[in-house]
Amino acid sequence: MKRCIKWLTAVLVILFSLTPVIAEEKMGDITIKYPVDNVTFKLFYLGEWKAEKINYQGDFKDAKITDDLNEAADALSAFVKKNNVNSSASEKSKDGEVNFSNIKKGIYLVLGEEKIDNKVHYRVRPMLLSMPAYNANTESWSTIVNAKYEQETIPGNTSLEVLKVWKDNNSKNRPKSIEVELLRNNEVYDTKTLSKKNNWKHTWNNLDGDYEWTVYEKTTFNDYSVSISRSNRKVVITNKLNKEIPPKTPKKQRIPQTGQLWWPVVILAGIGVVLISIGLSKGKADR
């Protein structure tokens, strides 16, 4: 009996030694420098970096967002506000910075709320961050960045212009019109149709400067990806065709005939030679 117990113990020890140990997932920290306190910043997990682009996951899996990282942040920000996407983490700024800890590996969208302080409107620019951060082929799990932001004295009223840009080589599949929504504090305030008739643009005037105003493209297309860029009171929405349009193959054209046609002369000359030969042969035969 004791021998059986010893054998069983030995077998269990061997089995446990062969069981792979699950490595603990490495986590990182993000510090964002921002001069205004008590402002809420949110992190949104987008997915992983694969094949030189973001492999979107979760709520962003079906988002038609451009692969251009310089233009993706604003489009993702509008997507979040329109679809009420939940954040992965949320923290408030204090003493000039915001701190996030225990952040897993991936690509993140960072959004900061707009705030009015002493009649000054502060607007945080959306940005993308990688965890870990890479610099000169060195990875860092502790990232410090400065938030980019805009500030302006609050007017009684403000305006916002939207412009639609197409990058599709004048494709025949381009829609005749699209709809854009004006959001006031993330709620739909107005909807407008953009088309060739209004030069694909519209301006909203007399907007209350105390609110946050955002433009979102309501119409979506499977063949196009969207990017949004904003500069103060102007929003540019760009739709780029995902697939290349092959150039049209020109039809083969016949070179136009000019001048005298020589091919009949050659044929007639050949016939003449044959007839002369026949005549000479017949003349010899008659002799």
Automatic annotation (TrEMBL):
Residues 1-23 form the signal peptide. SUPFAM superfamilies: Cna protein B-type domain. It holds the Pfam family Cna_B. The chain crosses the membrane at residues 261-280. Keywords: Membrane, Signal, Transmembrane, Transmembrane helix. Gene3D superfamilies: Collagen-binding surface protein Cna, B-type domain, Immunoglobulins. The keyword Membrane applies. Residues 161-240 form the CNA-B domain. The keyword Signal applies. It comes from the Bacteria. This is Pilin backbone subunit 3, Cna-B-like domain. It comes from Kandleria vitulina. The lineage of its organism: Bacteria, Bacillati, Bacillota, Erysipelotrichia, Erysipelotrichales.
